[in-house]
Amino acid sequence: MRNVVMLVNPTSGRGRGGRNAPAAVERLVARGIQVTEVVGSSAAQATEAVTKAMAQRPDALIACGGDGTVNMALQLVAGTDTPLGVIPVGTGDDNARSLGLPLGDPVAAADVIADGHIIPVDCGHVSTADGTERWFLGVMSSGFDSLVNERANKMSWPKGQARYFVAVVAELSVFKPLSYHIAVDESNLDTTAMLVAVGNGKSYGGGMQVCPAADMDDGTFAVTVLGKVSKPTFLRVFPQVFKGTHVTHPSVSVHHGATVALDAPGQVAYADGERIGPLPLHAQCHRRALRVIVPADS
Q1: Which residue has the higher pLDDT, 107 or 148?
Q2: Distance from the CA of 30 to the CA of which of 69, 198, 226, 269 falls in 20 to 30 A?
Q3: 157 or 264: which carries more pLDDT confidence?
Q4: pTM flag (> 0.90)
């Protein structure tokens, strides 16, 4: 590992991305690695700048931020020989957690990159109704959690994590189970559900193991479907996602397949914490489509 491009999101983790980037850069330079830092004031600007920097054929692309930053970097390296490294300093960091990376310690994460242990992992690729096409590494979801994100993104108050909890309460007061058509490989399911999560990785939302059966190296998605339940039951079941034990509830089913088609009237999908686009959508798990830098004991 001689030279890398580092994509820095200065707003990740309430500013932790910008504050921790210098320590990561300093460590990489001390380990003999040349770093080209890219900081964009918008996603479009950052993507354009990174694309130009990648023309110099660096040894790796590094995402310094949270899952959204990882997702942005993923679009540029999935399906290529260029490995992805992560300095996880975001709010959730679920993809870094799945990869066994040190969280909240930019120096330790930089050492992982400098050590240069690279493995292949699977990636999901999704196409939505509006023509959007994106790669995702962790979990893609639709339903209650996506509607909460939609609501939270429109709110100006309160700030931080409190806004998400306010959005949960507000959405739950009006939420009604949704009619889904789900196709996993050749199996079709028409059902009423609270949410559907398509997992290449296990968790989202900062450690919620919504797809505990997911494996980034088996060529398939784990699809978790939470069926129609009463709101009191939902409030009892949903918190179990932090341990992954929700899958034992009779209203939860888990399906496995390399392709997923998903449709529900008026719904949108989120992946790696980012808004992807409206349903219907089609997702495919691409076997070992990404090379990623991880600790040597992973």
Answers
A1: 107
A2: 69
A3: 264
A4: yes
